Amino acid sequence: MCDIRLFRSAKMDYETAAMIWRTPYNDEMILNNAAYHLQQAVEKVLKGALECVGITVPNTHKISKLVKMISDHGANLILTDWIDDHSEMLGEWEAQTRYDMDFLVEKRKLDAAMNEIRIFLDVNGIKDELREEFRDAAVRERLLECLPESKRECSDLELNCYYIMFKKKIGDLS
Predict the structure, then answer these.
(1) 99 to each of 9, 37, 104, 159, 174, how far by Cα in Å?
(2) Average pLDDT over residues 54-82
(3) Rounded to an integer, what distance in angstroms lies between the CA atom of residue 168 and that of residue 89?
(4) Is this prediction's pTM over 0.85?
(5) What superfamily does domain 5-123 belong to in CATH?
């Protein structure tokens, strides 16, 4: 069942990673925690988008598998080149950052991931600022008509996430 809580949780994972990344540290292993949360952010967005097109999501943390499923099933998600090109690395971060005590995420890779995953979240509307498409009141109303009355009073982030759910139903917004 499609649920915007996965998208909200992805945003929180990114914010957690950013908080860790910005904090001075004495032990490089702390970067593994930031990498783990970045991986989780991407995984949750991909799984959420798949659920929104009715795909039963497998119990996997392999970003490359989820990326392929997004492409195969036409989920309403923009896959950036960086996410596609680094899906294997991100998938490895899920377990290695938590269980391999000899594994250390390289700071340069984490720096790039912080930037690129922020871009991925932004282009897919996983942000607090309203999507550009909804600056037009008529377009916003078309989306709100898809929602039950009880869900129509929502934040900009929630509205952005509902767009992922209902884009195909409401059609081209441009």
Answers:
(1) 22, 14, 11, 37, 46
(2) 92
(3) 31
(4) yes
(5) Nucleotidyltransferases  domain 2 (1.20.120.330)
